[in-house]
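Contributing new records

If you add data, match the layout below exactly. Sequence lines come first and carry their own label; structure lines follow with theirs. Keep one chain per record. Anything else will be rejected by the validation script.
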Amino acid sequence: MTDTTEGSLMVSTPKPHSVGGNAAAAGTGTQAISRTLAVLTLFRESEGDLGISDIAKSLTLSVSTVHRIVRALVDEGYLSQDLATERYTLGRSAMLLGEAANRRLGLDRAKTVVERLRDELGESVNLGVRDAGEMVVVISAESKQLLRFSQAPGNRLPVHATAMGKAMLSHSARSVEDEVAALDMPLRRLTRKTITSPTTLCRELTLIRRRGYSIDDQEAIEGVRCVAVPILSPEGDLLAAMGVQGPAVRMTDEKLKRAVRPLRSAAQEVAHLLPPRPL
């Protein structure tokens, strides 16, 4: 681990997928909308700028189709073009839409809580949500220490390998057995400590459900340990998860356990700021 280990090391590359072959949508406005949203999603998941050919290849669309979609998005301010390189990035309208979503979902206020917890514990803190078999970072507050581990919003990791993911799996309305059975098999190994046995994962989730917090002991990233708790609405619905992470050399068993109480308190506070439904 270098002095600063950035979460960009863990960003999953958007998988190429086709959005042009839906017969039911062919020739309709639905197809055009689907393709436009796919283009925006590609930019959301990309770390850098994209060219027309990049988009066409990733979405298996023709260059001419992509060009029409991109031009319309540029005209509306959702994409911006660098005239020197002729490549594109998200534009002002996309930024304003994201800011509006943050306000309406309570994420701007939740970020204040996340940052306060970061300052209290001295380690990086994330708030994440589940997207099928992955956990996605929504809010991140990076530790101010020189040796730290951080993840940017949008970073993804398999749900079974992270503390936040296991916190959500264990507190689902479904049984842990049903949750594990619904995951893609075989469970992907990220480090030598990743749990890849469904039986072992079920036992781990049962323990987490009983004690109320989960630990990632270098299961997702070598040299990084995390502790996380679920974020439950006042009615008990599972909304998200919050975790504290740092270098294993600092995140001792004692420090992980000490973090649980302030982590739970912050999660309860955030639960009253978020909509009463999963993000």
